[in-house]
Write a structure and sequence with these properties.
Blueprint: H1 5-38, H2 49-77, H3 82-89, H4 99-110, H5 119-135, H6 141-155, H7 166-175
Helix pairs in contact: 2-4, 2-5, 2-6, 2-7, 3-4, 5-6, 6-7
């Protein structure tokens, strides 16, 4: 026990002075990488503008989701195996080969995929986008159709399933033909 207690304290203090900045740097780097994975951040303007843009972004994505479901229903209706359709589109670099298509079309084919995002939340989001269009007196037929598809999915008891279950509702709606007008 030749070392004096104050010497041990001094060694610990020096090590701490060296290690704390290194640990903080590592934590900051990990935090920054996590934020990058969540998406980019951008200042878009005054109060409420970011929320409006988020509602519009959700609406656009959910319209795309319904369009994917419709394409799968059409593939089946015309005798194209929906799995073959998804394989042909995925990775072809065509305009339909989007990240959303590559992620959600296979989940739609799975049927009862484990929820990554609940359909009821998507139904709420598309309703907000539809309300935004109504409030601005803007007629948006694709948004209205997507809103109706998600409302139908909720009415069919699919609310707690994955958003890809909107394909079930779209498939059912695509098979429901209105009766011919009577003469």
């Amino acid at each position: 026990m030749d070392a004096h207690p104050s010497a041990a304290y001094e060694v610990g203090r020096v090590i701490g002075m060296i290690m704390v900045p290194i640990v903080l740097f590592i934590l900051f780097a990990a935090y920054s990488a996590s934020l990058y994975l969540l998406g980019r951040s951008r200042h878009v303007g005054g109060p409420g503008l970011a929320a409006t843009i988020k509602v519009m972004q959700n609406g656009l994505g959910l319209v795309q989701l319904v369009a994917i479901a419709e394409a799968l229903a059409l593939a089946e209706a015309v005798g194209v195996d929906p799995r073959l359709f998804v394989e042909a589109i995925s990775g072809c670099d065509g305009m339909a080969d989007t990240p959303l298509f590559r992620q959600r079309a296979p989940r739609m084919l799975q049927g009862d995929a484990a929820p990554e995002a609940f359909l009821e939340i998507a139904a709420k989001d598309i309703a907000l986008a539809h309300e935004l269009a109504d409030a601005s007196a803007t007629t948006l037929p694709l948004l209205a159709t997507a809103h109706a598809a998600f409302a139908a999915a909720v009415a069919q008891g699919l609310a707690r399933r994955d958003t890809s279950a909107v394909a079930v509702a779209v498939h059912r709606l695509s098979r429901a033909r209105p009766a011919a007008p009577q003469a």
